[in-house]
Amino acid sequence: MSEPWTIDALAAALRGYDGEFAVQPLAGDEPVLHVTMREHGDLAVFLSAAGDQIVASTLLWPVDEQESADAFNRFILKAQKVVPLSNFAITEVDGRDYYELVGELAAASPIEMIVLELRVLADNAISAADDLRTAFAA
After folding, report:
1. Pfam families this protein is in (predicted)?
2. Interval 36-79: pLDDT, tens
3. Is residue 131 part of a domain?
4. Which terminus, N or C, of the chain has the lesser number of Cβ atoms within 10 Å?
């Protein structure tokens, strides 16, 4: 595909992956696609496509529930390589800060690359929840 993806085109393409993804466009100021990763415990991933990039993100856990949050924040900023192809962020949802994992790719990327990004992001989110979060528990 040489043209940038739209949310509707992404939804149609992802529906062709034999039920691996459940997809639902969400209305708003900027269209977003809610992707349920069925093979990753129904993890919710959100895709947006605007300008030259596609952004995939998933919420992890509330910042205020992270034990040793300062040490954890320093660790993830210094050791970003522990989650290849993904970046940690903090985003506010309903007045509460959450850790978020984010991946970006070009808006004209082939669907195979977008699917790979979704799978890697889901794997990294599960690893972060299983390994990183507990490593900083008291």
Report:
1. DUF2170 (PF09938)
2. 999 999 999 999 998 899 999 999 999 999 988 888 888 888 77
3. yes
4. C
